[in-house]
């Protein structure tokens, strides 16, 4: 999600997101070939991933972060901002499930291999957010807090426009340092990526990798929501914590159900 800007501050942001798409597409293609897709079918499926992802990120932004009656960015705007990553991940998962069902291949194993790509994208994409200065955190006194440079989005929000936000935001700490929430999310995603790889090598029960990652990542997003500044809070923003909770709860219930069936 971007914060009231009309340009990308750093080219690294765009580069890392493109690289993230390549990771998802590459692992999606690998999974398709592993499930006996022809090269043509695998490439067609893979080509749909970034399209579905972008649709999901834009829809999630419009729903949670924009004024639904007067959004700063419209659905078909060719602008490189106005996206919410979580929506893209959800829609890619749904797209992958539909393809698996129509292709009559095991859905859980299919999703397990896609988990590597999804967490790989998060790692790269949120690193790009950190470099770009978007999706920033709230003020903090912790020693690893980062300073915001003059002219950055965080500086404009907390210094230049500070009095404009006092009615909707209050912070218990006022500091020239903020939580590097983007890097927190990168760390969590890398940990889940490594865990997913290890579990796949151990050949655990299909679905375990995806469901553990889904539950953990959703709970992490829920926690980080309280450490992140929310300059744009749309009409339905307050449904966002419930979405994280619902996805995490559903993932845990499905995981328990799968293991109970094996007993």
Our estimate of the beta-strand percent is: under 5%
Taken in chain order, the helices and strands follow as HHHHEHEHHH
The major pleated sheet works out as: 2 strands, antiparallel
Low-confidence stretches: 1-8
Query: How many beta strands in the DSSP annotation?
Result: 2
Kindly name the structural category: mainly alpha
Q: Please estimate the helix content.
A: 55-70%
Residue-averaged pLDDT: 88
Cα radius of gyration in angstroms: 19 Å
What does this protein structure show overall?
The protein is an all-alpha fold. It has one domain (11-137, 180-262). It is 62% helix and 2% strand. It has helices spanning 11-34, 39-64, 85-103, 107-132, 153-160, 181-201, 208-224, 240-262; strands at residues 146-147, 177-178. It is globular and about 55 Å long.
Give the topology.
Elements lengths: L10 H24 L4 H26 L20 H19 L3 H26 L13 E2 L5 H8 L16 E2 L2 H21 L6 H17 L15 H23 L1
Antiparallel strand pairs: 1-2
Helix pairs in contact: 1-2, 1-4, 2-3, 3-4, 4-6, 4-7, 6-7, 7-8
Put the structure in a nutshell.
The chain is 62% helix and 2% strand. It is mainly alpha-helical and 263 residues long. Helix 1 packs antiparallel against helix 4, helix 6 packs antiparallel against helix 7 and helix 7 packs antiparallel against helix 8.
């Amino acid at each position: 999600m971007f914060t009231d800007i009309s340009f990308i501050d750093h080219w690294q942001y765009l580069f890392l997101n493109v690289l993230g798409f390549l990771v998802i597409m590459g692992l999606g293609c690998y999974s398709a070939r592993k499930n006996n897709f022809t090269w043509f079918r695998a490439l067609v499926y893979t080509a749909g991933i970034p399209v579905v992802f972008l649709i999901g990120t834009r829809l999630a932004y419009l729903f949670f972060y924009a004024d639904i009656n007067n959004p700063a960015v419209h659905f078909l705007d060719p602008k490189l901002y106005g996206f919410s990553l979580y929506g893209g991940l959800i829609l890619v998962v749904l797209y992958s499930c539909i393809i698996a069902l129509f292709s009559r291949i095991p859905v859980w194993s299919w999703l397990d291999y896609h988990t590597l790509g999804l967490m790989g994208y998060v790692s790269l994409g949120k690193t790009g957010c950190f470099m770009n200065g978007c999706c920033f955190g709230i003020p903090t006194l912790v020693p690893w807090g980062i300073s915001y440079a003059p002219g950055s989005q965080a500086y404009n929000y907390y210094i230049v426009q500070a009095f404009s936000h006092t009615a909707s935001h209050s912070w218990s700490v006022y500091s020239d340092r903020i939580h590097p929430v983007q890097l927190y999310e990168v760390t969590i995603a890398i940990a889940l990526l490594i865990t997913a790889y290890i579990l796949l090598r151990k050949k655990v029960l299909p679905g375990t990798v995806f469901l553990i990652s889904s539950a953990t990542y959703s709970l992490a997003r829920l926690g980080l929501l309280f450490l992140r500044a929310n300059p744009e809070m749309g009409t339905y923003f307050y449904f966002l914590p419930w979405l994280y909770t619902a996805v995490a709860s559903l993932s845990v219930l499905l995981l328990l159900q799968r293991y109970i069936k094996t007993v």
